[in-house]
Structure formats: C-alpha cells, structure tokens
Sequence to fold (276 residues):
Amino acid sequence: MRRIRLLTFNIAHARGLGLHQSIRTERRIKTQLLRIAHLIDRLDADIVALQEIDENSRWAGSFDHLAFLRDHTGLPHAVHGVNNRMLGRFHLNYGNAVLSRFPIGHHENVPFGKSLMGGKGALFAEITTPAGRLPIANIHMHHNSRASRLRQATQLMEFLDQQRVHRATRWVTGPILCGDLNNAAHTPDATAMLLGYLEQTDNYTLVPKCPKGRAARTFPSLWPQRALDYVYLPSQCTKVEVTVVRSYLSDHRPVLAEFHLAGQNGVKARVVEAGG
Fold:
C-alpha cells in the first residue's frame, strides 16, 4: 500500500493576485512560478494537476511554464494539454498540465471545442505508481455558462467510457477526476452530473468538504466565497486526508488530497450511458 499526495491548482497564468498576466514582466512571472514550485515542494506532492498554465504565451513571458516548474520542483515527468493556440506576434498557448514524481505511461488531451482563447478541456493521464497504473483526468470547465459545462461534462463522460473499454484492465482504480469545475457541488450542474456518472461504477467521494458537509470554498483565495475546485476519489483510495491550502499565489486556493492506494489486478470495464 502506497501513500499518494495529489495536488490540484489553478495557477492563473502565474499572475498571482494581479489583474492580468499581460501587465506582469517575465521576471515577475518567473518569480511567481518559483513560489509555486516551493509550495509544491513544501507540500511534498507526488502528482500535480495544474490549470491555466502557459506553454508559450506572449502575455505570460513567452516561455514554457510547465518546463520551468518541472525543473524547479524535481518532479521529472510532465505532460501539457494545450486547449488554446494562437500563432503570430501575439502568440498564445495554454491549458492544463500534469506534473508527476512517477512516470506517465499514457496521456490524451480532450479539448472542449476549438478555441484560440478561453477554451477549456480535460487532460487524461495514466500515472505508473508503485501500486499500479493510476488514471487521472485534470479538468477545467467554462466559468459562466451552465449549458456549456453540462456539454463539457457529457463530452468527458463519453471519453471516459471509451477509455474504460480499451484501457481499464491496466488501471489500479477507476479514474480520479480533479480540477477547476467552476460550479458548486450542491447545485444541479456539471459537478453533480459527473459525480452521478462516476457512482454508477464505484462509490466515489467528492472532496474537499467543510465540517458541515458542503464542499469547502476555494475561490477567491484572499477570502474564499465559492467552492470551485474538487477531487473525485474512487473507493480504492483509502485513509483519505484533504486540505484546502491557505495560499495567495493565485486567485484559487490549491486542494491537496492524500490517500493510500492498494494495488489490484485492474478495474472492470463497464460502459454506462453518457448522460446517465
């Protein structure tokens, strides 16, 4: 049995609490990324799911933020799922990413539509942990349209159904989902829709939760008023401890989920209705 520490964090293009990354110099953005790297080190994270991270964007210093974090955290394995690409003088390339202490055996990006700017998506990765291959989907959903989020959730469920058919025998658990879903857990929105879908195949736990049972607030980081950032854990994840990390390195607070993972001989491949 192996302890895993999973961190999900919307780093907001490394602008910190500033209004926009385009008014930050490259030096200040690198300083902010160093602070994020130090936080990842301090939390001893094994797997880090990042949202709003730039591959090469003029508005964020024109360098690869994921490569920078990989070099300064000592987490050697990294994949980037770019959902926004714009070439030319005002180049723009960003999306979601996964940093890992363990090798990443397989990964696929799931863009929610085609976009030059503002597009969202999910990055699916299979992490080869000592206990077995761990499937993770790192998600970022639309911030102000419930209809868009529900379409995005449906697209993700259809993708996961396909992965279950073709890849589930390799997995040590059902997929862990995490990220910035941009909606509360107690409303009939994408967060609840995904939980219902996952619970058709396993007994999932949605975290973080506050003492009263509702999802813990993560946004804005200075004085959190909304619960937007989540981790969905299947039953094979045991001895779960979850922390909303008090941090002001972004407008979101990171969520750290620590759990033990017991190895097994693969997850049963069961297909469910995408809208079920």
Notes: Residues 2-261 form a domain with the Deoxyribonuclease I; Chain A fold (CATH 3.60.10.10). The longest helix spans residues 146-167. The CA atoms of residues 150 and 241 lie 29 Å apart. The chain has four helices and twelve strands.
